[in-house]
From TrEMBL:
The keyword Oxidoreductase does not apply. This is Homoserine O-acetyltransferase. Substrate binds at R202, D320. The gene is metXA. One of its GO terms (biological process) is homoserine metabolic process. It is found in: Cytoplasm. It comes from the Bacteria. Transfers an acetyl group from acetyl-CoA to L-homoserine, forming acetyl-L-homoserine. It catalyses: L-homoserine + acetyl-CoA = O-acetyl-L-homoserine + CoA. One of its GO terms (molecular function) is homoserine O-acetyltransferase activity. Pathway: Amino-acid biosynthesis; L-methionine biosynthesis via de novo pathway; O-acetyl-L-homoserine from L-homoserine: step 1/1. Residues 45-323 form the AB hydrolase-1 domain.
Length: 352
């Protein structure tokens, strides 16, 4: 089992936009132990509504009998700023006012999420990361980290992610925020505010996470007489309600904006120049029928990150395949890491 901890940052935390957070807290979990050589760190970056318990949400890839297991590795997963699961977020108490932030919480970017986790890495005395891995918004974080601190990351694994969030992805997120903002309770300064809007937002999001074929195989009617109460309708309602029970509209609002902010080229000469800064041995994985992060985005990453390996996987689940197809991911990532070790051995022989 993982150990849940809270990192308390004692100084003011300056965000990319210049605003500051006082009393920043980062929730995180660790599994296993750091070995004597301090070279067994696996750092997982989570997606939009996930948490620090990577053994729970990425079962099959992380776990006692999985590729990334606590017996061999020191596994770390930290909850992002703004999230519902323990890190400083819009429902946290603003130390200046003594009241929850709600919509007075400052906007933040992917780079801010990374900066916070770099502070946590320093706190945990992590000098080197053997594998930095993330999918979707988690992949955006992993990529920014590999650019910001290239010498610290040995192996970078990016799954179903991109170098810059697309107009298509931003449009999906804006549609979800429009749904949230139509719920008047979102402006009522209460923890449950915006929950009806969040339900609709999740329903919209699900259409970008899955595919036509996924719905056809799981929500198809078995009878021909229906004119209402369809399985697909019930499914959308169920998924919306399920998220409302475990998340809040304010965190969702801010995190979707953070995803929109993702652009590794900001402040650089270009996106391509930024990707050239990655020094890690890199594996880029895409899902062939991903509607939200199409394969072209992962191909772009592999073409502009030096010597990156690219692999496309098939899944009936579209974008959500990065969480579901763990057997395939285990095979692809396992082979990649074996090759990485072999390359190191060959390099050592050459320099000996």
């Amino acid at each position: 089992m993982g150990t849940t901890n809270i990192y308390h940052h004692k100084k003011l935390f300056k965000l990319e936009n210049g605003k500051k957070l006082r009393g920043l807290e980062i929730a995180y979990q660790t599994y296993g132990r750091l070995n004597a050589k301090k070279d067994n760190v696996i750092w997982a970056c989570h997606a939009l509504t996930a948490n620090a318990d990577v053994l729970d949400w990425w079962k099959g890839l992380f776990g006692t009998k999985a590729l990334f297991n606590p017996e061999e590795h020191f596994i770390i997963c930290a909850n992002v700023i703004g999230s519902h699961y323990g890190s400083t977020n819009p429902l946290s108490t603003n130390p200046i006012t003594g009241q929850p932030y709600y919509l007075s919480f400052p906007e933040f970017t992917i780079r801010d999420l990374v900066k916070a986790h770099q502070l946590l890495a320093d706190h945990l005395l992590v000098q080197q990361i053997k594998v930095l891995i993330g999918g979707s918004l988690g992949g955006q974080q992993a990529l920014e980290w590999a650019i910001a601190d290239p010498s610290k990351i040995d192996n970078l694994i990016l799954v179903a992610t991109n170098a810059v969030h697309s107009p298509w992805g931003i449009a999906f997120n804006e549609s979800q925020r429009l749904a949230i903002s139509t719920d008047r309770t979102f402006y009522a300064q209460q923890p449950e505010g915006g929950s009806k809007g969040l339900k609709v937002a999740r329903s919209i999001a699900l259409l970008s996470y899955r595919t036509y074929d996924a719905y056809a195989s799981t929500q198809l009617e078995s009878v021909n007489h229906k004119v209402t109460d369809f399985r697909a309708s019930s499914y959308q309602n169920y998924q919306g309600e399920k998220l409302c029970k475990r998340f809040n509209a304010y965190s969702y609002w801010y995190l979707s904006k953070a995803m929109d902010s993702h652009n590794v080229g900001r402040g650089k000469k270009s996106i391509i120049d930024a990707l050239a800064d990655v020094k890690a041995n890199s594996l880029i994985i895409g899902v062939e029928n991903d509607v939200l992060f199409p394969l072209s985005e992962q191909k772009f990453l592999s073409e502009h990150i030096k010597d990156a390996e690219f692999h496309a996987i098939t899944s009936a689940y579209g974008h959500d395949g990065f969480l579901i197809e763990t057997d395939t991911l285990t095979n692809v990532i396992g082979n990649f890491l074996k090759e990485s070790i072999n390359k190191k051995i060959i390099k050592l022989h050459k320099t000996a």
